[in-house]
Structures are given as C-alpha cells and as structure tokens.
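Office hours follow-up: a student asked to see two folded examples consecutively, so here they are.
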Amino acid sequence: MRGVIIGMASILLAAPSVGQVMPGPFDHHNQIVCADQDSAVALTAAYEDKPDQAEELLARLAKHGLCERAVFSGKPSADVYGSKTQDRRRDLHVFEVEVTKGLVLKGKTKVFMLLHIFHDNEV
C-alpha cells in the first residue's frame, strides 16, 4: 500500500496512502502556489470540478499577484485543506509551505501550495 504525491507539475515523494500524508522538504520543484489559504482552496476546488476553467482562474489570480506557478524549494508545515475526488484514487490538498529557496509571489516566505495525491492501491 503505497501512494505517490504529485504536484500539479512534478513528483515530490512516495509515502503511505493511509492517513494524512505530509510531504517532506523538496528542492527546486515547479508548483502552483497562492499567497493566501482562501485563494488556494478556491483554486484547488476549481481543479477538482472543472480543470479547464481552473487554468483560467489561475491566470486571473496570477494577474492580481495572488497565485502563480513557481519553481522553488520549501518545507511543508501544515495540511490546511483536503478533498477526495470522485474517482477516489486521488486527493487534492493545500499545504502551507515555508519557502527555503527561490522567489515566490514577489518574495513571500510562507505560501499555500496545491498538490494532487494519487493512491496506487485504490481503484
């Protein structure tokens, strides 16, 4: 029983799929991040329901400096939102992350990162 945590654009690590999964520190990964928890949760819900429209929402949020795709290093500190998708093979999560390297949202050191968690043991 193993699951794989996958960011919107990259693989982070392998971990058990039982219970809450907290990813470890990561180095130089492309992720979607938001400046505040509410924007991150709204964007995560949009990816769950209508992925095409979520890309449009991301573009609008990026225009206002609230969310962006960024390559950075960081350390997740809290799982602030989780939602199971309909196919039950993946969860969508928002993690509070401390930025340890890289420029994110014009210098923010704490951001909210979107992740898909895929479970290979569920069909």
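And the second, which I mentioned at the end of office hours:
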Amino acid sequence: MEKTKNIPSLRFPEFEENWRVKKLGDVMNFKVTNSFSRENLNYENGNVKNIHYGDIHTKFQTLFDITREFVPFINEEISIGRISEDFYCKEGDIIFADASEDLNDVGKSIEIINLNNEKLLSGLHTLLARPIENTFEIGFNGYLLKTNTVRTQIQKESQGSKVLSINVGRISGIEITFPTLKEQQKIASLLTVVDDNLQSLKQKKTLLEQYKKGVMQKIFSQELRFKDDNGNDYPDWEEKKLGDVCEMKNGYAFKSNTYSVNGKYNIVTIANVQNGYLDIKKINKIEDVPNECLKHQILEIDDLLISLTGNVGRVCFVSELNCLLNQRVGKLIPKNISKLFLFQLLRLDSFITQMISDSQGGAQLNLSKPDIERYEIYLPSMSEQIKIANFLSAIDDKIKHCQEQIVNTELWKKGLLQQMFV
C-alpha cells in the first residue's frame, strides 16, 4: 500500500516534495519567561518592553511587528538584571499564551517578525519558543500555528476546568508538518499580503465610523448646515417632543412553549435588534400568529424598531418577511418626520447616552413608551431631513461595503489556511 503523502491540497506548482512531520519540541527550544503583572508595566517609558498574555488574546497581530503594535514597558524600578540575554525575544520566536478561559484561545500564538532593535521579553502566562536555525522562514510559523490541525491538537492537550492551560511539556508533543524554506517563504508572502489587505480594510472601516460620528455631531448640533437645491438656507430647526412626530407601539408577549423550530414566523426580540441591523441568525420561530396579536405586531419590511431592555436604544429596520414583534421591542411609526432621519437621529451618541441614563431598572435597564415619546429633539424641515438622512446613509453604505469586504477576505484567508497546509 502506498504511504500517504504529506502534501497540501492547494500548492504553488513549482513544489512537489513531501512535507516533513516533526514534534514541536524537536524543532523549537523553549526559553524562560517572566511573570510580571499589569501593575509592573506602563505605556509611557522604559528600556524593555514586555508581552502580556492578555494582549496576545485581544490585540496583537499573528505576525508581530513591534513598530505596528502598542506594547507596554517594564517599569524601570523592576529589577531585570539577572535575566539572561538568551531569554530576550528574537525575530522568528513564537510566543504562546498558555492560559485562557476560552478553549478557542488557549495556546494562541504570535510570531515575532520585526523587533526594530528594541528589547522585548515574554511575560506572564506565556511560553517562548525559539525555532532551530535554518528550519523555518520568518513569517511562516505564525500561520502554521493558526491551522485547524495544530489548533485542535493544542486544545486537546489543554487542561483545567474554569481556566484552561497548556505547558511546555504538552505543547512540545504537538505535531507540525512543514515544507522546504523556499515553499514556506512563498506561503508566508501570500498570506502576509492577504493579512495586510485585511488590516487596511479594518482601518478604512474604523476611519469611516469615526468620520460619521464626528459629522453627525456637527449636523445635529447645527454646526454644519445643508443648503437647498437653489443654494439657499433651510428654515430654522424646531423644538419638538419625539411623541409629536412619531408613535411607539409595543410588542406582544409570546410564550416560549409555542415556539416551533420549523415555524413560519420569526419572533423579533431585543437580541435580534443589533446596532443598525436586524440579526436573525439565531431567532425563535412560531407556527401561527396568535389571535390576540394586533396588526402593529405583524411587521413589514422597513418597519423601524428600537430595543427597550438591556442594550437600550438600539435601532434597526425590519429586513425580513414574516416577522412578529416581541415584548421589550418597540416599533416607531413616524408621523411628521422622515423615517430614515429618525433612524439616524436615534443613533447619535448623545441620544443613546441620554436613553441609557434615563433607563430604569436594577440589573437590566428598561425604557418605556412614555420615556421614548417625551424626548425633546430639534427637527429641520422635511426637505433638509431627507438631505441629511441620504448623506448619512451613504456613509453607512460605505461602512457596510467595507464590512462585507472584511468578511469575504477573512473567509478567503480561512480557506487558504485549510488548503495550503497539511
């Protein structure tokens, strides 16, 4: 019987050799790390920077470039004179987070690709692994250790109940499969381009979101005004109560024992009302509309909803057919206001802050129909409302498009990780 070949399903055409299989402990040496807590670190000054395991979980990129990351210093009063030079990080080193409450994060790692001649130590709850020379191309291991094959092994080797952990002995037994240095370099280069594109998209999305926040503040404070189509000023804004320009309808108290997995109707709860969109990935269903359910609780496309409990003040439009309005979600029915303008107004940071501060309740915040309808607002003419709403919606469209590109790029990267590694 022919021996199974260790080759990936997707490969650069110039490579044909079988990949090597080794245990991590055979190709990497583990170095001593420190146990300095956050109290021993600062972001202002110092001579030596330090990797804290929490930052591996939350913010550092797979390929760690110190010039692109915000890394804390070890406080200058902390004695580090006895730390051997061999224990300082080098380019090509791998740092694992050895503990996590989440199985998906235990053993999460970064690869150091650029230190910029700065001094760096691996700190609390980390494992520092240094590859044997001429075994790996810098930038390859960061991706190799993110593959399902490696991650599954690490998760199986982790121990603990509330907090999971992995030690040097267990992680040394993990099997990794890797090609020649030239093939490693080609793989790392491709995935680095994908990652750079992903980071650019995320930065673009962040900048668009920041721009929208700033311009919204100027528009609704009337610091920034639009002109009409003839270049003339619009009329002054008028002070109104929200209840003067829209009406809020409450949802129906659906009973959980009537839920049906294959039901025809979606029951929209506060969990489905997200920040600007309706999320029905996880939604309860029901087979028939209860007789007591009023017309306004049977939702139509583009109905405007607002969450009244928990994360109060989130708004979204209905984007699916056959949806029913559950209790603690309100439907806003505009009377003398553009629905799209109202949607943008309710997403203003100052408005959300006001709704949160006015909410009643102990463990969970609550808003009521009177709470919503008594809010004072300044309202422009209908023509200016439409111009403002269209302007802000155009920015939303760009943010949404950017998010779609991020999702698609992440899926592409995931596919490459699955197919380009064994």
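Two things to take away from it. The chain has three domains: 20-178, 181-226+380-422, 238-379. The chain is about 30% helix and 20% strand.
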